[in-house]
Design brief:
about 90% helix
Length: about 70
């Protein structure tokens, strides 16, 4: 469980840094860098969704065992 919490924190930091990078790159008219940060933010969001689905399945399996 600690590993999943650490992953969630890492994914949150990745999303926050990507959003800051998007804003910075957009202000500097560096559109390829904007695309890169959008892709990384999308990847981190996708991984967060997968993590939450895994946690949901884990808790559902524990509830059925009792």
């Amino acid at each position: 469980m600690k590993k999943k919490i650490a992953l969630n924190v890492f994914y949150n930091l990745g999303v926050i840094i990507s959003i800051c990078g998007i804003v910075w790159a957009f202000k500097n008219d560096s559109y390829p860098v904007v695309a890169l940060f959008v892709a990384t933010a999308g990847l981190f969001l996708f991984l967060k969704v997968q993590l939450f689905k895994d946690l949901k399945n884990t808790f559902n399996d524990k509830g059925k065992g009792h």
